[in-house]
Design goal:
The structure is a single chain. By secondary structure, the chain is mainly α. The chain has 2 domains: about 30 residues; about 40 residues. The protein is about 80% helix and about 0% strand. It contains 3 helices and no strands. The longest helix has 28 residues.
Length: about 70
């Protein structure tokens, strides 16, 4: 859990430092818009959950003994 919080903090700090350089690419959005930061974080979390859901469900259906026997 501590690693996750540290990664989140590091990511937010780096994103805040990089946004002024990318400000020219933003159309009509201030570089440090908190709503945009939150929206991007939520989209990335849901994308990660969606990408890991199917493999996790498939892995839950297998017996550990059967999974080891296949390898």
């Amino acid at each position: 859990m501590a690693i996750t919080v540290a990664g989140l903090a590091a990511g937010l700090v780096l994103a805040a430092l990089v946004t002024p350089f990318l400000g020219a690419l933003l159309a009509g959005v201030p570089p440090r818009d908190p709503v945009s930061f939150l929206l991007v974080a939520v989209v990335l979390v849901f994308t990660a959950l969606a990408a890991s859901y199917a493999p996790a469900r498939r892995g839950m259906r297998l017996s550990p003994v059967d999974a080891l026997r296949q390898d």
